[in-house]
Amino acid sequence: MASAELQGKYQKLAQEYSKLRAQNQVLKKGVVDEQANSAALKEQLKMKDQSLRKLQQEMDSLTFRNLQLAKRVELLQDELAVSEPRGKKNKKSGESSSQLSQEQKSVFDEDLQKKIEENERLHIQFFEADEQHKHVEAELRSRLATLEMEAAQHQAVVDGLTRKYMETIEKLQNDKAKLEVKSQTLEKEAKECRLRTEECQLQLKNLHEDLSGRLEESLSIISEKVPFNDTKYSQYNALNVPLHNRRHQLKMRDIAGQALAFVQDLVTALLNFHTYTEQRIQIFPIDSAIDTISPLNQKFSQYLHENASYVRPLEEGMLHLFESITEDTVTVLETTVKLKTFSEHLTSYICFLRKILPYQLKSLEEECESSLCTSALRARNLELSQDMRKMTAVFEKLQTYIGLLALPSTEPDGLLRTNYSSVLTNVGAALHGFHDVMKDISKHYNQKATIEHELPTATQKLITTNDCILSSVVALTNGAGKIASFFSNNVDYFIASLSYGPKAASGFISPLSAECMLQYKKKAAAYMKALRKPLLESVPYEEALANRRVLLSSTESREGLAQQVQQSLEKISKLEQEKEHWMLEAQLAKIKLEKENQRIADKLKSTSIGQGVGPAQENPTGVNAGGQEEASTKAVLEPIHSTSLIGILTRTSDNEVPDVESREDLIKNHYMARIVELTSQLQLADSKSVHFYAECRALSKRLALAEKSKEALTEEMKVAGQNISRLQDELTTTKRSYEDQLSMMSDHLCSMNETLSKQREEIDTLKMSSKGNSKKNKSR
């Protein structure tokens, strides 16, 4: 496979190389054509320069001719000026000569006019030729610049293509070398594989012979011993006990425990919400302590008072479902019979919600109609009424899907197995919808409470009740969010665990077959437990021989052992008699203690009565006597504290008058306090041990994960080292190729600079020649 991939890669690279080579040839042709065009333009420029020079020479000759004619005209004009005064003197004599001079003058004037017109025409032609020359020169220069830029671009493209070709050639060479190495290694592996295939063929022959013999033996045993194949029919196969998956059961019990905790939180939040809503109805908008509330609110309060009878069964149903999932059972939808009871409890609670919903909506409308209700509070009440409708609808939707999930445990045809996954996903969506509705209720009720607190007639009782309702709504929102996230996190596991059932079957056919399977499972577990009874501990053979020698060598006889047994029995009977005697003594002491306590109580009553009679007589002597008596009783009843290992005991002075509490009561109280203290210490130690066990378990998991990550990192380090070495090799090869390319590019740039310098020199010469020609034209 690797060689085929490399050959395909090599063919692709060869095709790309051929394409690039064809493009290079086209570009070379384009460069050559552009060079030929530039040469033709240069020749045209030379021809134009030659024609310009010819025109300049003609212009020079014409200017010279014009100068000669101008001098001749001046001379003629001077002669005319000289001849005019002479003509005045001898007009008469020179009429004939004047006629001749006028004819000559007219001839000269015509000739001069012709020369002037020719001169103007030549000037116009010269100006047009000069303008045309400048325009042609500018066009040729711009074209030359564009051609130079195009030539530079083409050269850059050619350089890039050559560089690319060199890189591709180097890559192909490297790939070729690698392919050669790989081909060698593949040849070696092919040789080894051939040897292995020969060995495997020999092993396959041996295994085939062995398995054929075993198959014949097993077929004969099956035909003789097995009466029928119960896995062939689904009805019989459903009664077979599946393999026990303890991990699956523990996981399901853990999930059920978490769900029970979430449901308990939700139940407490619902109870608080309904109870505080009932309290609010009694307060707002009319306080029941001041005036009677409306009959609607009275009925609504009566229904809300019954909320515990509908909400508490949800927790009980979930608890029964949790208790039904044990380590020994098989937990699938066909065996979770307690889910039906939870669904029934949820149905009863939804009936309760449907019953209170109209009263709740009417109560909110009554609040809106009261004079204390503002427009903002009316808007919040309308939003809350819509939220309550949504909450009831969400609970109905949730109950529908939970009822569908409870059908496989009661009615086998109620829900197809292919629809389990869709029902579970819809349950998750319904829980998320419940969470969204509770968030809206929390938001709107918070706004409603803030508006009501700002009212001037808001009492402290209403404020505290609103705070309690808000706390219960927040608890409901948090509980709904936890349940929704918990279910969405475990829905994949629920869908995957649906395939847990009998071997080679689609699942349990009916709840009756599932119940029978569980009974068979219990019987099989009891049978296995009976088989795995621990054997009695036996004495090792060497120890038994040593004991036998001791018994044989001992001098004790059977009679001595019988006497010892008789003595021990007599001692046991005496101890039992002493036990009965001390039990009777303890009962008598208890009776005496009760009598003594009663006597002390009677004495204390009599002393209290005597102290009450003394001040009633209002006699100073009696007062003194009473004071002396009090002092004596104080002296007598003054307690003396003594400390011991039991604790602090109180005893009286010499007369030994008992205090309110006797010594036995103090001892009893001390021991009770000590027991409570020890139990608290024991509970603290148990909690600490559980905490330490959880920490140790977490640390062990973290240690295992760290070891796995360490192994993964070591493998990544190895791969990274190999990649680094490979990249270093590639870097060295690329450095060499780049150095060669740079040397070639430097040579090419030198040649390009030389050609550019030559072109610049030619342009400078053309500029100098054009400047000289323009100067000559100006001077002329």
From TrEMBL:
InterPro entries: PPP1R21, PPP1R21_C, PPP1R21_N, PPP1R21_six_helix. Keywords: Coiled coil, Endosome, RNA-binding. GO terms for cellular component: early endosome; membrane. It is found in: Early endosome. Residues 95-104 have a biased composition (Low complexity). Residues 11-112 form the Protein phosphatase 1 regulatory subunit 21 N-terminal domain. Residues 3-72, 137-196, 558-592, 696-730 form a coiled coil. This is Protein phosphatase 1 regulatory subunit 21. It comes from Panthera leo. The gene is PPP1R21.
